[in-house]
């Protein structure tokens, strides 16, 4: 396993994936092995989204955090697979809540099998994960994972509360992101440290690292909704605005645009009548008024904080991989 002195060949994510290829393949095998429901449709629906190209960032961060703290065992494969099940369950539910048609460039499960099946398979994956996590007999892991799932649900409710409301304070936007996205990422990092019997100080540092990284990831992802190559990203550009979601670049735009433009944006959010022409105009306004730059600068500031969280750890292959992974969160698909 890649440990010891820092590996000089790790300069980008391609290098990271290569160095940890065997570990990732082992985790992938475990994810597939855990799809063992006696109801074939459950396995089919779960496999549909699990095989759609996700990077397995959460279980991978769990692995890297464990290795960073000196862990040499193999239990991270099983624990990482359960984290991925929880993440997948949240995606199945989110797509129903958001009426989403596309996920990672493919039709969502709700479009193929309907909302009821998507919700129930999501419930199954949650249940499966918690039934198996108890086998670790580790109260620390149970508590961290339970708290993360609670926060994910709270974040979803808060986002729904503000849906279509452009007056959402930026602080509440960050709170939603911290709960919905960063919570499970931070929990994954802490669980890796728990597996390694790391000190409380190291566990706390890795939890903060995951929290900062998770916020940066979501802020950057929300910004990509207006700037990325939609086909390559696997999503329809402007989808957040079409669904009435006020993300950071839009919040900045609403604070700095003219009253006339602000009212037009609010009208489109409330009526869900965004056209391609409207979207093009709003993106141009974001570029002119610095909304895209502002959001990406905020994302980078969280990555800088995440890098600081790694300072108490000695140089190693795992530390370098975590650092490169953090930078990747704000440079992907660009």
Written overview of the protein:
The protein is mostly helical and 334 residues long. The chain has a single domain, classed as Farnesyl Diphosphate Synthase, CATH 1.10.600.10. It is built from 17 helices and 2 strands. It has a two-stranded antiparallel sheet. The two termini are 31 Å apart. The N terminus is likely disordered.
CATH architecture field? Orthogonal Bundle
- Span of the ends, CA to CA: 31 Å
| Strand numbers in spatial order across the main sheet | 1-2
Provide a count of the helices.
Answer: 17
Whole-number tally of structural domains:
1
Tag the structure with descriptive keywords.
73% helix; 334 residues; globular; mainly alpha; two-stranded antiparallel ribbon; single chain; Farnesyl Diphosphate Synthase; disordered N terminus; 17 helices
List the helices and strands and how they pair.
Layout: H1 13-19, H2 21-33, H3 40-50, H4 57-68, H5 75-98, E1 102-103, E2 106-107, H6 109-113, H7 115-133, H8 139-161, H9 170-195, H10 200-227, H11 230-233, H12 239-242, H13 248-256, H14 259-271, H15 276-289, H16 291-309, H17 317-328
Antiparallel strand pairs: 1-2
In short:
By secondary structure, the protein is mostly helical. Strand 1 and strand 2 form a beta hairpin.
């Amino acid at each position: 396993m890649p440990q010891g002195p820092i590996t000089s060949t790790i300069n980008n994510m391609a290098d990271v994936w290569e160095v940890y290829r065997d570990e990732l393949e082992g985790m992938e095998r475990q994810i597939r092995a855990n799809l063992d429901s006696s109801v074939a449709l459950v396995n089919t629906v779960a496999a549909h989204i699990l095989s759609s190209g996700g990077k397995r960032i959460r279980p991978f961060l769990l692995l890297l955090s464990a290795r960073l703290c000196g862990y040499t065992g193999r239990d991270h494969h099983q624990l990482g697979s359960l984290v991925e099940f929880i993440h997948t369950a949240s995606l199945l539910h989110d797509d129903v809540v958001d009426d989403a048609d596309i996920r990672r460039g493919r039709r969502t499960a709700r479009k193929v099998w309907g909302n009821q099946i998507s919700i129930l398979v999501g419930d199954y994956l949650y249940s499966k994960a918690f039934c198996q996590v108890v086998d670790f007999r580790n109260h620390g892991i149970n508590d961290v994972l339970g708290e993360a799932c609670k926060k994910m649900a709270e974040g979803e409710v808060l986002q729904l509360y503000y849906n279509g409301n452009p007056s959402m304070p930026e602080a509440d936007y960050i709170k939603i992101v911290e709960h919905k996205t960063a919570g499970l990422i931070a929990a994954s990092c802490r669980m890796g440290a728990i597996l390694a019997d790391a000190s409380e100080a190291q566990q706390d540092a890795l939890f903060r690292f995951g929290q900062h990284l998770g916020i940066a990831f979501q802020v950057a992802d929300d910004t990509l909704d207006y700037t990325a190559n939609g086909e390559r990203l696997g999503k329809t550009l402007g989808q957040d605005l079409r669904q009435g979601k006020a993300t950071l670049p839009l919040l900045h735009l609403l604070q700095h645009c003219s009253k006339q433009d602000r009212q037009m944006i609010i009208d489109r959010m409330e009526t869900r009548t965004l056209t391609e022409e409207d979207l093009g105009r709003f993106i141009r306004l974001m570029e002119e008024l610095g909304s895209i730059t502002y959001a990406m600068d905020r994302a980078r500031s969280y990555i800088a904080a995440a890098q600081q969280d790694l300072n108490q750890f000695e140089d190693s292959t795992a530390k370098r991989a975590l650092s490169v992974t953090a930078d990747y969160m704000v440079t992907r698909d660009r």
